[in-house]
C-alpha cells in the first residue's frame, strides 16, 4: 500500500476519523476538530464546546443520508454540524451521563447511537432530537463500541470491556443475543493471547449486514455471522496481531470482501475474506468445519505509531489512519 501524510490540522494526537460519501474527511483530536478537503491540501478548524476539562473528540461520524451533516462527541456530549456552516452547531445532545466512546448513525440516517463509560447506549432520534431508547443493564462496565446493522432496521450491536458482544432490538430495548468472547476457545493461544484479556475494543459491520468483526484485546480479530433475525454465531478467528487490536474496519470500497485491522504493536493488516483461493498468507483459525472459506492476509504494514482509528473512502480506495502523532496517514490500496 502506498502511503502519504496529511499534516497541519492537529497539534497533538488524532483520535477519530470519518469520511462522507462525497470524500470529505473529518478528524477529531485532543484539542481540535477538523474538516479536510478531498486531497488533504487544507482543512477547516471547527469550534466546539469543551466539556468540563475534556478537550478530546473521541468519535465522529457523518450521516449517510445527508453527507453534509457531521456529528462529534466530546465528554458526555454530542455536537452536530452542517458542513455548509461550520461556525455554529446544528444541535447538541447531552443524554449520556458518562464519557461517550463511540457514536454511529444507522444506514437510513434516522438514529444516532452513543455508547459510554457507564456501559449504557443512548439511541437518539435525529429528526426530533429526542432520546428514543436507553440500552442498559447488560454491559457490566465500559461500553467501548457500537454499530447499527445494515439492512436491519432495529438492530444494533455493542461491545465492551466486560468481554461481551451484545445484539439489541433497540425498538424495544431488549437483548437479542449476547456472547462472552472469553468462551471462544482462547485457551489454546500462546504468548500475548494468555497475557492480555480479550476486551472488545472495536466492532464494525460488513456492508451487506451478514457478518461483523470484533477487535479484541488478546490480539484476535473475531468474525461473527448472523443466522436469521435474532442470532449471531462465531465465525473465523483471524490471528496476525501480537498485541491488542484497537480497530477493525470493512473498507467502503470493498466492504463485503475485505477487512482492515490495526493493533497496538503498530501493525496494519489488510485481509481478503472472499470465497476461494487468494494469494495472501492464511491467518485464520476456523471454528466451524462446515465453513469452507478462509480469510488470508493480502498485505501488512508496519505503521510508525499506535493507531487510534481507521476509516476509508469509497471514491478513492484510500484507508485513513489516525494515531498518536498529529498526522493522518493515507494508504492507497493498489
Query: How many β-strand runs?
Result: 30
Radius of gyration: 19 Å
Shape: globular
Distance between the termini: 6 Å
Strand neighbour order, sheet with most strands: 18-19-20-21-26
- Share of helical residues: under 10%
Biggest beta sheet attributes = 5 strands, antiparallel
- Oligomeric form: single chain
Based on the model shown, name its key terms.
334 residues; mainly beta; five-stranded antiparallel beta sheet
Structure in a nutshell:
The chain has 1 helix and 30 strands.
Could you outline the blueprint of secondary structure elements for this entry?
Elements: E1 2-6, E2 14-19, E3 25-29, E4 33-36, E5 43-46, E6 57-62, E7 69-74, E8 77-82, E9 91-93, E10 100-105, E11 111-116, E12 121-125, E13 130-135, E14 143-148, E15 155-160, E16 164-169, E17 174-180, H1 192-195, E18 200-205, E19 211-216, E20 220-227, E21 231-239, E22 245-249, E23 258-263, E24 267-272, E25 281-282, E26 284-286, E27 296-302, E28 307-313, E29 318-323, E30 328-332
Antiparallel strand pairs: 1-30, 2-3, 3-4, 4-5, 6-7, 7-8, 8-9, 10-11, 11-12, 12-13, 14-15, 15-16, 16-17, 18-19, 19-20, 20-21, 21-26, 22-23, 23-24, 24-27, 25-27, 28-29, 29-30
How would you portray this structure in words?
This protein is an all-beta fold and 334 residues long. Helices cover 1% and strands 51% of the residues. The protein has a 5-stranded antiparallel β-sheet, with no helix packed on it. A 5-stranded antiparallel β-sheet has the order 22-23-24-27-25, with no helix packed on it. Strands 1-30-29-28 form a 4-stranded antiparallel β-sheet, with no helix packed on it. Strand 10 and strand 11 (111-116) form a beta hairpin. The N and C termini lie close together (6 Å). The relative contact order is 0.13. Residues 288-292 have low confidence and may be disordered.
Amino acid at each position: 500500500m502506498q502511503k502519504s501524510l496529511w499534516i497541519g490540522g492537529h497539534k497533538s494526537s488524532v483520535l477519530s476519523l470519518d469520511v462522507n460519501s462525497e470524500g470529505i474527511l473529518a478528524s477529531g483530536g485532543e484539542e481540535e476538530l477538523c474538516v479536510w478537503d478531498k486531497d488533504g491540501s487544507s482543512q477547516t478548524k471547527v469550534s466546539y464546546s469543551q466539556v468540563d476539562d475534556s478537550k478530546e473528540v473521541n468519535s465522529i461520524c457523518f450521516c449517510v443520508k445527508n453527507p453534509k451533516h457531521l456529528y462529534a462527541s466530546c465528554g458526555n456530549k454530542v455536537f452536530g454540524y452542517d458542513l455548509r456552516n461550520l461556525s455554529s452547531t446544528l444541535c447538541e445532545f447531552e443524554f449520556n451521563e458518562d464519557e461517550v466512546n463511540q457514536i454511529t448513525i444507522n444506514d437510513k440516517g434516522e438514529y444516532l447511537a452513543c455508547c459510554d463509560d457507564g456501559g449504557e447506549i443512548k439511541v437518539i432520534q435525529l429528526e426530533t432530537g429526542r432520546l428514543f431508547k436507553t440500552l442498559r443493564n447488560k454491559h457490566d462496565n465500559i461500553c467501548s463500541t457500537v454499530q447499527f446493522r445494515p439492512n436491519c432496521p432495529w438492530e444494533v450491536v455493542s461491545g465492551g470491556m466486560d468481554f461481551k458482544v451484545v445484539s439489541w432490538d433497540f425498538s424495544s430495548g431488549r437483548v437479542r443475543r449476547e456472547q462472552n468472547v472469553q468462551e471462544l476457545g482462547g485457551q489454546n493461544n500462546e504468548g500475548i493471547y494468555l497475557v492480555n484479556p480479550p476486551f472488545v475494543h472495536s466492532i464494525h459491520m460488513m456492508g451487506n449486514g451478514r457478518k461483523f468483526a470484533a477487535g479484541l484485546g488478546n490480539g484476535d480479530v473475531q468474525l461473527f455471522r448472523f443466522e436469521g433475525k435474532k442470532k449471531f454465531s462465531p465465525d473465523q478467528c483471524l490471528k496476525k496481531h501480537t498485541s491488542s487490536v484497537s480497530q477493525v474496519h470493512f473498507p467502503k470500497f470493498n466492504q463485503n470482501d475485505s477487512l482492515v485491522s490495526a493493533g497496538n504493536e503498530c501493525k496494519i493488516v489488510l485481509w481478503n475474506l472472499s470465497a476461494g483461493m487468494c494469494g495472501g498468507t492464511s491467518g485464520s483459525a476456523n471454528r466451524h468445519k462446515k465453513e469452507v472459506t478462509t480469510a488470508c492476509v493480502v498485505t501488512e504494514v508496519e505503521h510508525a505509531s499506535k493507531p487510534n482509528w481507521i476509516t476509508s473512502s469509497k471514491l478513492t480506495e484510500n484507508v485513513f489512519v489516525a494515531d498518536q502523532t498529529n498526522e493522518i496517514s493515507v494508504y492507497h490500496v493498489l
